Amino acid sequence: MPEVPRTRMPDATLALINDPYRFISKRCREYGSDLFETRLMLQRATCMTGPEAARLFYDESRFIRRGAMVGRIQKTLLGKGGVQGLDDEAHRHRKQMFMSLMSPERIASLIARTAEEWDACARTWSLKGEVVLYDELHVLLTRAACAWAGVPLAEPEVEQRTREITALFDYAGSAGPKHWWARLARKRSNRWIESIIGDIRDARIHPPEQSAAHVIAWHRDLEGELLTPHVAAVELLNVIRPIVAVGVYITFAAHALHRHPECRRKLQADDNASYTESFVQEVRRFYPFFPAVAARVRREFEWNGYPFPKGRRVLLDLYGTDRDARSWESPEAFQPERFRDWDRSPFSFIPQGGGEFHVHHRCPGEWITIELMKLASKTLSRRIRYDVPEQNLRIDYSRLPALPRSRFIISNVRPDL
Ligand code: HEM
What we know:
Blueprint: H1 13-18, H2 23-31, E1 35-40, E2 43-48, H3 51-57, E3 63-64, H4 71-78, H5 88-99, H6 104-126, E4 130-132, H7 133-149, H8 158-170, H9 176-201, H10 212-217, H11 229-259, H12 261-268, H13 274-286, E5 292-297, E6 301-303, E7 306-308, E8 313-317, H14 318-321, H15 366-383, E9 384-387, E10 395-396, E11 403-404, E12 409-415
Parallel strand pairs: 2-8
Antiparallel strand pairs: 1-2, 3-5, 4-12, 5-8, 6-7, 9-12, 10-11
Helix pairs in contact: 4-9, 6-7, 6-15, 7-8, 7-11, 8-9, 8-11, 9-11, 11-12, 11-13, 11-15, 12-15, 13-15
């Protein structure tokens, strides 16, 4: 049996927090191995990278999600009782509820709503000297997400709700006061959405039948019971929150357009949208967002001679797998064209998880994410013009999610509407 490489430090939690995106791949390279053992929060954990490790990770006979999530992420980003922590039949049944929201018609309706918000924002931005794109996108996407999901959002509420939803993902990985603000934001957002679920069930409001609010409020579990108001709110926020979080990728798309002016020209000349799709995929491959996902070993097994004891927490490296030189030529280069003849492997390109949408925990919002990014890339390259003033565009990899330090400032916005 080959010896499992082990980190030398007694506990690696701090090293992971300080360098979340490169923690796993850096050590795997150093040990010449696809996996290593360490201690995280004083418990033994196995960290893995690469397409073969991803294939293993999504084998449901070997891993479960129950109890895998780190507590502080559950208390902020995800909430308790959501689809992320379910396994087997219960997971598949709940997952189907999310997948039913992702029909081409429903996605087109979100994109149409979001395009209206882009136009309105472009007009407002043109009246200001400069704006911070990342911050502006939160409001834009919160309005679009709530309207699409059937969640009423009165004008005076927009600012506060936007701030709370944003805190769920923007501060989830923070320590200290920002973490506590994210926990408070989780409580407040859940209370708000629980009251909306109550209003739907008591027929005080009537969102459209295909909307996320309606579907989730009336979803029944395998026993035929409605979800508790708390869990229904967690799941509705599982739709709204990540739509707002797509602002992270849109900020990176703007970053890529600035760093690679030839991409802007190609987007402008792209009449059948095939380059736009490749550009967006390369943004998702190249830029950091989710560093890793976690599971626990269902029952003891061996893989390539390495032992996986029952209950062990296992982390799969998403960011490093997307930049693995065994799957990607010159992985450190930004090259949208690489997606022209990409093999569509479900295990080598996994910024939003791998495997199959209906079966595994792979993100059900991937198509929405891609379409929102395509709309944003078209808008930034064709529908508005802007300047990019001097600013610090270096990416801060120590925060979660990573972002350009300036959050991407644009000035002198001219809508080309
Ligand atoms: C799951 C990333 C957008 C809803 C996930 C997972 C990742 C991820 C890494 C976990 C995969 C796993 O556990 O194996 C992202 C990123 C997004 C995004 C980077 C860009 C902003 C969205 C959108 C939606 C969404 C737009 C919904 C509208 C979900 C849900 C799950 C999930 C409900 C849990 C699925 C399950 O456990 O079966 N996402 N996501 N995400 N995502 Fe996304």
